[in-house]
Design a protein that fits this description.
Belongs to the SKP1 family. The chain is mainly alpha-helical. The chain contains nine helices and three strands. It has a three-stranded mixed sheet. The longest helix has 15 residues.
Length: about 160
């Protein structure tokens, strides 16, 4: 990018018609958006989603906070900010999981599923299958060693108090 040049902005329309103006960091977090990115560059039309404005606003907040994270970052532990974010939004965690799955935002999907897995005492892969955001073979191909590591990591994850 040339010095003094403005970052491109994009418009996204929620399922209830609200339009959000976002920058490229959200496009980079979502595989769904990044696929249509080349077609959005010159379009004045907003990209339509099936996500409500309330949930889309929360997703934008999460993506903005994590905009500098690596694309392949592994969220084995839930960062404190994310634990608070999910605690504040306890009633909508499942809606966030569904939306993150639809928009293919892997980091948010993993963190939210990890929080649910801790609450339920299940592995993250089992939670993904239960919520239909993962494949059944993911559960059956899990190494026992990985399962033991997950249990050890659970002690290091900040508790998410029930609301």
């Amino acid at each position: 990018m040339v010095v003094g040049q403005r970052k491109p902005i994009f418009k996204i329309r929620s399922s209830d018609g609200q339009i959000f103006v976002i920058q490229d960091w959200l496009i980079q977090k979502s595989k769904s958006f990044s696929v249509v990115y080349p077609f959005m560059k010159d379009s004045a039309q907003p990209l339509q989603t099936t996500v409500s404005s309330f949930i889309l606003e929360k997703i934008i907040e999460w993506c903005h906070h994590h905009r500098h994270d690596d694309a392949d970052q592994d969220y084995r532990l839930i960062p404190i900010w994310d634990a608070q974010f999910l605690n504040d939004n306890n009633g909508i965690v499942f809606l966030l999981i569904e939306a993150a799955y639809r928009l293919e935002i892997r980091g948010l999907l993993d963190i939210a599923c990890r929080a649910v897995s801790i609450t339920l005492g299940r592995s993250m892969n089992e939670v993904k299958v239960m919520l239909r955001v993962g494949e059944p073979e993911d559960v059956f191909n899990v190494d026992d060693e990985l399962r033991e590591d997950d249990e050890e990591d659970a002690d290091m994850i900040p508790a998410i108090p029930a609301a």
